[in-house]
Amino acid sequence: MSSVTFETQRTALADVVAIPVTPFAADGTIDEATHRALLRRLLDGGVRTLTPNGNTGEFYALTPQERQQVTEWTIDEAGDRAVFLVGVGHDVPTAIASARHAREHGAQMVMVHQPVHPYVSQGGWVDYHRAIAEAVPELGVVPYIRNAQLLGLRLAELADACPNVVGVKYAVPDAARFAAFARDAGLDRFVWVAGLAEPYAPSYFSAGATGFTSGLVNVAPAVSLNMIEALRSGDFPAAMKVWEQIRRFEELRAANGSANNVTVVKEALASLGLCRRDVRAPSRPLPEEERAEVAAIAAGWSV
């Protein structure tokens, strides 16, 4: 195991980590043709890292069979044009089965969604991720951390047991906490991905992140890529120019506890004629009066 360096995976995480949407047809099923077209648009736009079954893909609203379909279609469509970070989660046996399915279809990494359980102990968090990581030692494993209580030392403990834990998607909205967590876990030991997308990318990059996730990239790949280029070159004023460009869009997504996080992205895509605006409960389409603002933002980006 020690001979595996996971360089491909590490490089792919230090980038715009796109979270594709899952488009639905009029009958409520996943629209495969549109799904593939949206993936091609991302790839043609320069995206090289894809996360099928992420939160922007409505992971928790998909059936187990649909999650498998999304994984298979994404890997089939992108082929060697991308590196895949497949979202897995739920109970441990389900997460392991999903990770093995991803491996069998050619994925290089899995992202482990935060454990969905009202009672998560620190040691139990380690146990949960360890069981999944040990089941797929050939894959890079990326915990998705949204728990502000979790200590960086617990992540270090996990990686001591599982050297395939190579990156972290950190999504606690607190840049100072991120800086401390990363240093407690081992700043140089992992690839740190700013898990709250473009709004947090500049502050998290200043503290050691080298990649960020994005749902906005579905709408405007060039905007997200402009930001990462600025951040890579250390040009924070240029990055903040992009930040100003995306601010309102991301504020709409984050409002009311991120109620419309996916909704706003799909509304923007719908305004560009790229997919239907349908989302699944517990999300809901935007009311008519709020659609024009999203359409105006998306139109401005596509100029």
From TrEMBL:
This is Dihydrodipicolinate synthase. SMART domains: DHDPS. It comes from the Bacteria. Pfam families: DHDPS. The active site is at residues 144, 169. Belongs to the DapA family. The keyword Lyase applies. PANTHER family: 5-DEHYDRO-4-DEOXYGLUCARATE DEHYDRATASE 2-RELATED (PTHR12128:SF19), DIHYDRODIPICOLINATE SYNTHASE (PTHR12128). Keywords: Lyase. The lineage of its organism: Bacteria, Bacillati, Actinomycetota, Actinomycetes, Kitasatosporales. Pyruvate binds at residue 56. It comes from Streptomyces resistomycificus.
